[in-house]
Amino acid sequence: MGKPQTIDEYIEGFAGQGRDVLEEVRVLAREAVPAASEAIKWGQPAWVHPSGTILFMVSGHARHANVVFTPSTREAFDADLADFATGKGSVKLPYGQPVPSDLLRRMIAFRVREHEDDGVLWM
Q: Structural domains in the chain?
């Protein structure tokens, strides 16, 4: 199969816990930002603000999923993310552990405000 054209196709490429985590993040994203559209950007699922700016992305890997925000969003939650491996704007969600839904909802809300109020675009 070629590169995924939809988020459904992307998620179908995973099995077991990987698929479960990706589905859970997708449901959470739809609830947190219903006005955002879903798209594949750089081969990965992304949620895009009605203005056209990417709000955040998710990617699946062998043992974890990454949720990627802007570095400023990730940094705003440093204290809450002490128990997670993080990158420049990413949060690693290990398979087999609960998805931190409340934390991700707060991060998504922060990212939306950051874009709408402060004009922060994607990286």
A: 7-112 (3.90.1150.200)
Indicate the pLDDT class of residue 1, thresholds 50, 70 and 90. Answer: low
CA–CA separation, 76 and 64 (whole Å) = 22
Question: What is the amino acid identity at position 68?
Answer: V
Helices 16-32 and 101-118 pack at an angle, to 10 degrees, of 40
- Strands, sheet with 44-48, edge to edge from the N-terminal-most edge strand: 37-41, 44-48, 54-60, 64-68, 90-94
Model pTM? 0.94
- The dihedral region occupied by 97, where left means phi > 0, alpha psi between -120 and 50, and beta the remainder, is beta
Interval 64-90: pLDDT, tens: 999 999 999 999 999 999 999 999 999
Q: How far apart are CA 55 and CA 120, in angstroms?
A: 10
